[in-house]
Structure formats: structure tokens, C-alpha cells
Write a structure and sequence with these properties.
The chain is mainly alpha-helical. Helix 4 packs parallel to helix 8, helix 4 packs across helix 13 and helix 13 packs antiparallel against helix 14. The model has no long low-confidence stretch (mean pLDDT about 85).
């Protein structure tokens, strides 16, 4: 028998090796442990998702059986002035607060990347707002800080400036919520910090030898190398900002006021579904929100090929 035929025989014998009893049970164990996740996916995610799609074509008040009405809910949305106002408020909130939040997160990450003593403590302290920013307690605190007798006006009074109720003024109410979202910079900051630690130091050394300033190094090295991290944070924060609800609900006492200046889309959806018991219309609104978020995410992914650079 030739060497090639012997090698071929050995390969066939190796490929035909019978599985041990433990290996045969690996698949069963995997199904067993993944079973609860699949049950949750069907009952908590997929099931309600399909149900809401059906309800969006019905007239449903939560108290009686839904009545199929076709596209009437979607036609109503095009003629609803409060829905259009809530979309405007939400878009302003997202497109102003997210860039400011990412800029603040990147700036603090650059400071922490300089090797400060007690870095773990600083990371924990700066991350804390991300854990608390969407809580009811912080929203109540925010309402007190920007109220007529709040901390902001007390500080202004020390320098002889008479403040106003920032959350009761339609010109400034949304700005207070934007500041609150910017304040929750902890999560993207930690991700930026991890990305900065992955940039090879040799790039900065070579740039220093060539006489590049710190600003030039930041523009030509740090930003291009961080673009995948910036893109990742951008997508996550945009999605999260569109889903914001608690801040607007607590600060405006559930009204979206003053004059609908803090009427987030999610808050108006809640008002239609649970206050007005118009759940069919609210389901249609939820699907519109899904389409808007999916569309913006798709645009971000398409645009990323023009400004995101990977080390391929």
C-alpha cells in the first residue's frame, strides 16, 4: 500500500470516529439551557411584537374586543398635530443631546486616559450618572434643581441675577432635559476609554518625532482610530434617546408641557394608549417609532463606510 493510500485511509477513519456519550449529549444540554431564552423571546418579544402589529390595524380600548379598521390609525397619524409636535421635540432632543453627550464622554475619557491616580474611582464616579440618569428619583431631583426655587436660581441669586422656573418656560424646558441626557455620559465614556487604550503608542511617538502637535495628533491619529468606537456609541445613544420617557414624564408631570415643549414621542404614545385608552392608535405609533429608529440606524450604517476606518 502506498503512503498516499495509507494517509487517505487514516483520514477516513478519523472522520468516521464515533462520538462519545458526553459529546452526543452536548446538543441536548445546549437546548436545555437555551430553552428559557427561547421561551422568553417568543412570549416577551416576538409575541407582543406580532400582537402590536395586529392591534395597529384595529380600534382597541383595552376594555372591549379589538375591531379591525384597516389603515385608519395610520391615516390619523398624518393628521395629528400633537404627534407631529412630539416628533419635532424628539428629533431636537436626539440631534442636540447625543452629539453633546458623546463630546463630553470623549473629553472626559481623554482626561482619564492620562493615567490619573485612583483611576478606578473616577471611572466609577463618572459612570454613576448613566445608571441613575433614567431613574424617577433623578428626574424628580432635576425638576427641583431647575424649579423656580431650585439650586440653579439660588446660585444665580448669589450674583444678583433673578432666575426663572426653567422647567415651566417653553423656551428652556426641553433644554433642561437635554442637559440631563448629556449628564448621563458615563456609559459611552467607559467605551471611549477602552478604545483609547487600544491605540498603539508608537503612532503618537512617530508623530512627535515628526513635530506634530497634540492637536494634530488628536485629529490625525486619535479620531481616525476611534471612529469604530464613535460609530458604536452613536448608534446606541441615538436609539436610547429616541426611547427616552421617564425624564419627560416626571419633569412635566405626565403632560409634556409647558405647551408640549417636552412632549417626547414615547410620552405621547403613553398618553394615547393608557390615558386615552386608544391602544390601537398607540400600537400604530409604536410601529412608526420602530420604522424611524430602524431607518436612522440604517442611514448610520450606510454612512459609516465613508468615515469609519477599521484596521483591515
Amino acid at each position: 500500500m502506498s503512503a498516499l493510500s495509507e494517509l487517505s485511509t487514516l483520514r477516513r477513519q478519523k472522520g468516521a470516529r464515533s462520538l462519545s456519550p458526553g459529546e452526543k449529549n452536548d446538543g441536548k444540554y445546549a437546548i436545555f439551557f437555551l430553552g428559557p431564552w427561547f421561551v422568553g423571546l417568543v412570549l416577551i418579544v416576538a409575541g407582543p411584537l406580532v400582537a402590536s402589529l395586529y392591534l395597529s390595524f384595529t380600534d382597541y380600548d383595552l376594555l372591549s374586543d379589538p375591531t379591525f379598521i384597516g389603515l385608519e390609525n395610520y391615516q390619523r397619524m398624518a393628521e395629528d398635530p400633537r404627534l407631529l409636535a412630539s416628533l419635532k421635540v424628539t428629533f431636537v432632543y436626539v440631534f442636540v443631546s447625543v452629539p453633546l453627550q458623546l463630546a463630553a464622554a470623549l473629553g472626559l475619557a481623554l482626561l482619564l486616559d492620562r493615567g490619573l491616580r485612583g483611576l478606578a474611582i473616577y471611572r466609577s464616579v463618572f459612570y454613576l450618572p448613566s445608571l441613575l440618569g433614567s431613574s424617577v428619583a433623578v428626574a424628580i431631583l432635576w425638576r427641583q434643581i431647575f424649579g423656580s426655587n431650585g439650586l440653579i436660581n439660588q446660585v444665580l441669586a448669589l450674583v444678583g441675577v433673578e432666575g426663572k422656573s426653567w422647567i415651566s418656560n417653553p423656551d428652556t424646558a426641553l433644554g433642561t432635559l437635554i442637559i440631563l441626557n448629556v449628564w448621563t455620559f458615563g456609559s459611552p465614556m467607559i467605551i471611549f476609554l477602552a478604545g483609547l487604550r487600544q491605540i498603539p503608542e508608537m503612532y503618537y511617538e512617530a508623530a512627535s518625532i515628526d513635530g506634530a502637535s497634540k492637536v494634530r495628533q488628536f485629529i490625525s491619529i486619535t479620531i481616525p482610530m476611534l471612529t469604530p468606537i464613535i460609530f458604536f456609541n452613536l448608534v446606541l445613544q441615538v436609539i436610547g434617546a429616541f426611547q427616552s420617557f421617564t425624564q419627560s414624564y416626571i419633569v412635566s408631570n405626565g403632560t409634556g408641557g409647558p405647551v408640549d415643549s417636552t412632549l417626547f414621542y414615547t410620552l405621547y404614545l403613553y398618553q394615547r394608549g393608557f390615558a386615552a385608552l386608544d391602544m390601537g392608535y398607540a400600537s400604530a405609533m409604536a410601529w412608526l417609532l420602530l420604522v424611524v429608529i430602524a431607518g436612522l440606524t440604517a442611514i448610520n450604517f450606510y454612512a459609516s463606510k465613508f468615515w469609519v476606518f477599521y484596521n483591515d
